[in-house]
Amino acid sequence: MKHIRNFCIIAHIDHGKSTLADRLLDSTGSVTDREKQEQLLDSMDLERERGITIKSHAIQMDYTYKGEQYVLNLIDTPGHVDFSYEVSRSIAACEGALLVVDAAQSIQAQTISNLYLALENDLEIIPVLNKVDLPSANPEEVTDDIVDLLGCDPSEVIPASAKTGLGIDEILSAIIERIPPPSGKVDAPLRALIFDSVYNPFRGVETYFRVINGTIKKGQQIKFVATGKNYNADEVGTLKLKQLPRNEIKTGDVGYLITGIKEAKEVKVGDTITDAKNPTTEAVPGFEDVKPMVFAGIYPVDTEDYEDLRASMEKLQLNDASLVFTPESSAALGFGFRCGFLGMLHLEIIQERLEREFDMTVITTVPNVSYHAYTHKHPDEVILVNNPSDLPEPSSLDRVEEPYIKATIITKADFVGPVMSLCIEKRGQITNQTYLTPERVELSFDMPLAEIVFDFYDRLKTVSRGYASFDYSPIGMRPSKLVKVDVLLNGNTVDALSALLHVDNAYDIGKKMCEKLKELIPRQQFDIPIQAAIGAKIIARETVKALRKDVTAKCYGGDISRKRKLLEKQKKGKKRMRQVGNVEIPQEAFMAVLKLN
Ligand code: GTP
């Protein structure tokens, strides 16, 4: 145990976490030339293209320091707020963290939120000032910022460049010198923390764990505490660039486990692995069932593809336990699914994976958060509202609650005004304002989560000219005034366009939705009135004017096969269009409410 170090790298997005991880692998000789490729740890195509780490992974390095052999386990953490629970579990598996700060950008919102998570878990923090090679780097100033934040000595901050390799040896020495070795009980019953899992279609779910007490052996009967299920440890091993099977993984070390589990949802991040016959009395604290935060409907563009969509969603769920879905139907869109996501990025990822990996073309409806509604009749019984149609009749409604978050924004002093106005417009209440330096300010707000779903990121970027970073964490439910805004096309309510909105926003957003839909809905042979309504009350109206000329006239007569070809072509072009009544609605219209400004 004395020779094990478990650490993670925490950083704001793009501050160089993955590049630094690659460097460390390189310097410890953990990668052969053949295996060298950019961003080694980001194995999913999607991750690589987006340049962000979505799932955390772990990797083991061997390193000789002052003549002694050490094992360094690097546990990678996902870089986006949607996945903060996974970050917290990865952090809980470590004794130390490299806190990477970009020498040009300085401390940003996720630097701080990740640092707090690390400090809550008593991690030893090694501050790394990365990208000092950049001409725009400000090493002295940013070192001061770090010293202020951590209360450490300036000499503890390691100047580095993951690009040129500067400082890498110092970082490796610091990992060994400053991070304490693990301190578990070798003789105690097995107690291991699951910090990640990966779905492998051939081998079943691979579970990544950190042994806290005891030993996990190949062939052992084990038990997952939260799910209460028993398994046989078919294979255990350490995580080099490839998996290396071992007979046992001991106290303090990190490894993988294969049990033949076929579904991701059986393996819960944060759960404890113990021995089935001699179980530990104490589970690792901090286990939570991850709850979806954002809900939206997903429908096949072609109604006939419903069963294919179901099969694809089931496969996706096998390897992404945080995705939940239940069948729902819409008068406008037919049969589809109401899906729960961790956040907006997660929603985008699922939509993209459905298209890329399963070749499905889908329509996603207006996302909403999960509300709690109570009726006069049963004022103590919570009704979960994950869908506009779940909201009880206004007359029967006693009260509604909506999820709130604590939002942390770091920006330049120049932009404090516009950022505050934006947050107040988004129903935020400022709770704290701290000048980190004379130029940089940290603002905290209590805000409804729903306001983040609607165009918040883009607006924040615009009002701060890109100089604002943002992070959030849930702080529970609070009273809300909610209404359902319906959209009528040609006099008919299109249920899939309904949105749940705060009453103060309803008129404004209803109006903007009508304007946006007017832009998006193609003109047809007749006028199409677009109306927004709350109950029977119309709150806004626009009209898509009829086409003046009959453009399809050309199609009549002539060669029938040519005409069919033309129709085929049109059909392809119409992918993502949905005929509702006699009006054609493009996909963008269903998400229009998200892009109103
Ligand atoms: P996420 O995975 O999205 O959180 O990003 P990350 O923190 O892993 O950042 P990543 O390693 O992808 O680096 C972001 C960008 O910064 C990439 O274009 C890197 O090439 C660049 N970069 C990283 N380290 C350095 C450095 O030391 N110097 C310079 N000049 N560029 C760097």
UniProtKB/TrEMBL annotation:
EC number from the UniProt entry: 3.6.5.n1
Cellular component per GO, a single term: plasma membrane
Domain Tr-type G: 2-183
Lineage: superkingdom: Bacteria
Record keyword Glycoprotein present: no
InterPro entries cross-referenced by the UniProt entry: EF-4, EFG_III/V, EFG_V-like, EFTu-like_2, LepA_C_sf, LepA_CTD, LepA_IV, P-loop_NTPase
GO terms of biological process kind: positive regulation of translation
UniProt cross-references to PROSITE patterns, sorted A to Z: G_TR_2 (PS51722)
Locations listed in the record: Cell membrane
GO molecular function, one term: GTP binding
UniProt-annotated binding residues for GTP: 14-19, 130-133
Membrane disposition: Peripheral membrane protein
Pfam families assigned to the protein according to its UniProt record, in alphabetical order: EFG_C, GTP_EFTU, GTP_EFTU_D2, LepA_C
Catalytically driven reaction(s): GTP + H2O = GDP + phosphate + H(+)
Keyword tags: Cell membrane, GTP-binding, Hydrolase, Membrane, Nucleotide-binding, Protein biosynthesis
Keyword Cell membrane: yes
NCBIfam families: lepA, small_GTP
Job of this protein: Required for accurate and efficient protein synthesis under certain stress conditions. May act as a fidelity factor of the translation reaction, by catalyzing a one-codon backward translocation of tRNAs on improperly translocated ribosomes. Back-translocation proceeds from a post-translocation (POST) complex to a pre-translocation (PRE) complex, thus giving elongation factor G a second chance to translocate the tRNAs correctly. Binds to ribosomes in a GTP-dependent manner.
UniProt similarity note: Belongs to the TRAFAC class translation factor GTPase superfamily. Classic translation factor GTPase family. LepA subfamily. Belongs to the GTP-binding elongation factor family. LepA subfamily.
The name this protein goes by in its record: Elongation factor 4
Organism encoding this protein: Salinimicrobium catena
